[in-house]
Design brief:
alpha/beta, Spore Coat Polysaccharide Biosynthesis Protein SpsA, Chain A, seven-stranded mixed β-sheet, 15 helices, 12 strands
Length: about 325
């Protein structure tokens, strides 16, 4: 299996962090890796990736990960991309691998699908996507990445490009799959509820864990449910796990996040310290209660291509979100 990996990066301080180097070094065991950061970086920062990647670039373009992947596609060229069996689209929004990549690649390579993601509910979550050569050769796929536009915020990027990519591939008749999907999470939770309870009871005080919620009907990356995903052998721990301020598991992550024992946890610790993402358990509990009250009285979210506002759980405003990604017709 000949793979190429386009790795999108961003760092507010303009550096290539050690956790990113570790991540890419392990990806390079399975693919030819090219790196592009959506920020300005000094040459010495990019040189940290010498001998690991096939090319490293950095320039502020403001088009998020899809923009960086598009820039790399322009640099590499689609003729070169078509020489590969699989194209990986990956970003630096997580730490890993906390479990080896090999079981995931072995399982997904054995499946009859055109595209897969590490995680997905109704669409492929774009922090780790793999597409086959058939899709690489599709002109619609090429057009998507040659016409990426800057958008006002990340939510619009998710709606237009992340969800849009999955929708277009499905409309084209491609088969999509996920290494971790809702059914897999639900089945694992049912069969391992006792182990999860033992892990939580052992490492989180009672007055904190009574406020924890485990909802195993979806793949959730930013809450206590991540503990379940890591028990399942998910290779990547998303950094957003630490940014959500009502995640009670986050302050206890060294004890409740299950790894294969090989990952140097200091890489996560150092990055959290630099980003000032350390949280106290007491504050997480307080924020959890505040969020529950807020959701009771006010809720504002995108669902089924509509922006919906609810007050006291009653919809009071709704409008169509128009920034959808359209398929390019021949």
């Amino acid at each position: 299996m000949k793979r190429i990996c386009l790795f999108a990066g961003y760092d507010r301080d303009g550096i290539v962090d050690d956790y990113v180097i570790y991540y890419i070094k392990h990806l390079a065991e399975f693919a030819d890796v090219f790196y592009y950061a959506d920020c300005d970086m000094k040459a010495e920062e990019l040189r940290k990736l010498d001998g690991i990647v096939k090319g490293a670039y950095a320039k502020r373009h403001g088009k998020y990960d899809f923009g960086s992947w598009g820039e790399l596609m322009k640099i590499i060229g689609f003729d070169k991309l078509r020489e590969y069996d699989r194209l990986l689209l990956v970003n630096d929004s997580g730490y890993g691998p906390l479990h080896s990549f090999k079981p995931m690649f072995d399982e997904m390579d054995s499946k009859d699908c055109d595209a897969w993601a590490m995680c997905g509910n109704k669409f492929m979550m774009s922090f780790f996507i793999s597409v086959n050569n058939k899709i690489i050769n599709d002109k619609n796929f090429e057009q998507i990445f040659t016409h990426i536009e800057p958008l006002a915020n990340k939510n619009l990027v998710v709606h237009k490009y992340e969800r849009g990519l999955s929708r277009i591939l499905q409309e084209q008749g491609y088969l999509l799959d996920y290494f971790i999907n809702p059914q897999k999470v639900s089945n694992f939770y049912k069969n391992n509820r006792k182990k999860l309870k033992e892990l939580i009871n052992k490492n989180i005080p009672l007055h904190e864990r009574i406020f924890m919620d485990f909802r195993p009907n979806k793949v959730r990356l930013y809450s206590e449910d991540y503990v379940v995903l890591m028990m399942m052998g998910m290779p990547i721990l998303k950094s957003m796990f630490f940014k959500v301020d009502d995640n009670i598991a986050a302050p206890h992550w060294q004890k409740v996040i299950v790894t294969d024992g090989k990952y140097p946890l200091s890489l996560i610790e150092n990055h959290l310290k630099r980003m000032k993402l350390e949280r106290s358990a007491a504050q997480a509990v307080k924020n959890k209660l505040k969020d529950k009250l807020r959701r009771l009285f006010y809720e504002h979210k995108i669902k089924n291509n509509r922006l919906i506002t609810k007050i006291c759980k009653i919809p009071v405003y709704s409008r169509v979100v128009t920034s959808s990604l359209e398929r390019v017709e021949d």
